[in-house]
Amino acid sequence: MPTLTDKNLHRTIRLSAIRKRLVADGLSVDGSCLADIDVKRVVFDSREVRPGDCFVAIRGGTADGHMFLDDAIQNGAVVIVCEVVSKRCDEELSSVACIRVSDGRRALLSLASDFYGNPGDDLTMIGTTGTNGKTTVATLVSHVLDAVDIPCGFIGTTEYSFRQIKYSASATTPPPTEVYRLLAEMKMDGAKACSMEVSSHALDQHRVQASDFNVGVFTNLTRDHLDYHRTESEYLAAKKRLFDGLMATSTAVVNAGDPFSKAIVADTEARCLTYGVADGVDIRYKILSDDSTGLNLFLDGQNASFRLSGAFNADNLAAAYGAGIGLGIESDRLIAALSEAPAVRGRFELIPATRGRSVIIDYAHTPDALKNVLIEARLRTPSDARLWCVFGCGGDRDKGKRPLMGEIVSRLADCVVITDDNPRNENSAGIISDILSGIQDQSNVTCETDRGDAIKFAARESGPGDIILIAGKGHETVQIIGQVSHPFDDLSTARHAFGSVPEAGNIDLAGEEQR
């Protein structure tokens, strides 16, 4: 899959326009300016600066752009946008226009949108946020809009895409310069809409403008990213920003069954639509059946069958349906489109294996997501067979969830194989020790740091009819060890280890085609 390249979609703008845009967006602006020059691009990485560019210094988690002002100037920057200037840079800055702002990240967001012609203004934008379900909901929305003749792009964890053009995803929600470059390219290629996953990091770091979105979808809020947000209240506040910034003409679609839903929309000006199983919600659903043919739901007054399975996907289908209602699409057209939507890669992806076994590949990497997928897998495990779980926890991430995930897996699975996820800069043994601290009875637990060997162990030791859940990485095709991304794919590794049927697809746990 190619990576995103610059197709010269941005426009050259004047220095005076930069100042005007920053002031219009409420930023405090001062500093020196030279002649009203043309500025070619806006960048935030000094290594990517080319002559004629505007460099915006932002404070990152591991580096501060203010430390690289002189590098940006030496590489040809003609405008510097920053929050503070050190004395050692004063002489260098005297040769360029310097604009000091109160918030570098907000400045980068404003300028990125402006340089690419504010493409969000011309596209119907749907943003989905929440701990779990973002990728599935955003993908379903994209599928629905395409099906009702509204060409729709997608920006999310699995990929960035429009029609047959697909790019590898660098992050769930990329930096502003990449977001608006993607939107500009989609618009140029004929897109009328974009369905986007909006992460808590993106909202906290001003990677997107909430006012761009016509619909905001909230799936749920459970523990995650506390390595970054520190507290659950900070995590909630980040998610809430999407809805705080929606315009009065927009629609907020929220999961009424989540305890945080009222707080999420407490300060929104948007129209609110709720979905769930309880009486009194705007979009009510009931699960009629969930088997090898997929889900059958009573959704908003209609009986309908869907190719997705699992109770959590009933929530996801209702959320995507709500987004469509928020955009004014007729109910019948939404149901018809959703009924044909395929499953998302790495999200409860089912593959049959030899000896009547089945493997589930899932991205579940939070306690709640892991619990939900294990419950669904248990429902499909024959009474005389065992449920396995191969999983790990990411390094350099929230350590507090590790024992929680260990406890959940030990309680819900018969056989547990703990292995590496993306250890990053942490020691594998330490991560595994953290997971084990949540498991009282470790008699059914095996530890194998090498993920490939862990999957092979499950393949070797599992018996006829067993269900094997491989959790945590889902669609990912690399494993991050230290600073290096090594090729690794749970799906292909499992196919090889388990002797599975060669075709990928949505196959039920009895081996029949479904969804």
Concise synopsis of the structure shown:
This protein is α/β, with parallel strands linked by helices. The protein is 32% helix and 21% strand.
Written overview of the protein:
The chain is α/β, with parallel strands linked by helices and 515 residues long. The chain folds into three domains: 13-115, Udp-n-acetylmuramoylalanyl-d-glutamate--2,6- Diaminopimelate Ligase, Chain: A, domain 1; 119-339, Mur-like, catalytic domain (UDP-N-acetylmuramoyl-L-alanine:D-glutamate ligase), CATH 3.40.1190; 349-498, Protein-Tyrosine Phosphatase, Chain A, CATH 3.90.190. Helix content is 32%, strand content 21%. It has 17 helices and 26 strands. The strands form five sheets. The chain has an eleven-stranded mixed β-sheet, sandwiched between helices. Strand 16 and strand 17 (294-299) form a beta hairpin. Helix 4 packs parallel to helix 6, helix 13 (367-379) packs parallel to helix 14 (401-412) and helix 16 (451-461) packs parallel to helix 17 (490-498). It is globular. The chain starts with 12 loop residues before the first strand and ends in a 17-residue tail after the last helix.
